Amino acid sequence: MLRKLRRFVGTILKSLHIDYTKTKIYKSYKHRVEREEKILQQDMLISLYQLPVNKVINNMQNKNEIVGFIFSFDRAFQLYSLIKSIDEKFVTKMPIYIFYRASNDKHQAAYHEVFSKFSNLEIVPILQKSKESFREDYLQALDSISTENIIFFVDDIVLTESFDYADVKNLPLNVFTPTLRLGANTTYSYTMDCESKTNKLLDNNLFKKYTKIDDKLFWQWKDGVADWAYSISVDGSIFDFQEILLLSHNTDYTSPNVYEYYLNSLYSSLYSHKIAVAYKKSKLVNMPINKVQQDKFNVNRSGNIDTNYLLDLWNQGYEMDLSHLYGYINNSPHEEIELKIVKRKS
Predict the structure, then answer these.
(1) Are 9 and 19 in contact (CB under 8 A)?
(2) What pTM was estimated for this model as a whole?
């Protein structure tokens, strides 16, 4: 309410050619808004620790150092490309949880076939029961996982470069957020249609006791612009699992897009002083060739290749040609790249 009133007063003063940011009324409302936000932030921090203790204790006996977690809906064709790129580019072997939903039996059958193609990997499929049960099913999935850390993906991602988790495993995640989606090459934000950058890179030498520094970039999220300020992304970022568990249990959401939106809306200030860690060349690219989540927060641009068309391609024995994507230099974490297909070998 205070924000709306401040904008209203500002509009009136601007029409009178008055710099409202220098007026007493602006400063008064600015202080009130900041005070309100600080109280809200304190309330959220307190609420984080209202999660039943047994859920945290049960997950303390960590079986894995890291697990992968993929969100997917009606995109078995694209999911296959992501898993194949993980198999070929993700050096560290880890359990891969695939949280998926299918709108009909044909899409469901395609998913089952995709899972069967990767017997060499530890794939853990988790079927979302219905559109409405996303949060319930997702929390149940998280509660079943035993791990120290988690890396998220969505099904329209392809890894373009090799990545070894061992390279960043010594970074304490209460201080750092490693991400594979950003690099010196990602100077544009496709989703926001603007320049994307950080205003202040940190001295790499400060972090040489944690990781190799020659191939990395370090900055605080608060100093970023556009994608370089987007601290809680499910597109190839690594998080402390207990942190994700606590945030997820204390937030309402109905889909992956809404989940990510609310995590950033509510908790980004908890991450703003954390140090982002990216490689000088990003390790993945999102290929937004279509849109499947139809919710109010999914306003991102995308292509319009129908998922049923891709399903037909899958059933005819085709897959995405990854050869021109490996080593690809994208200028945004999301980029509409020409879809090339080849016959599957198996």
Answers:
(1) no
(2) 0.84
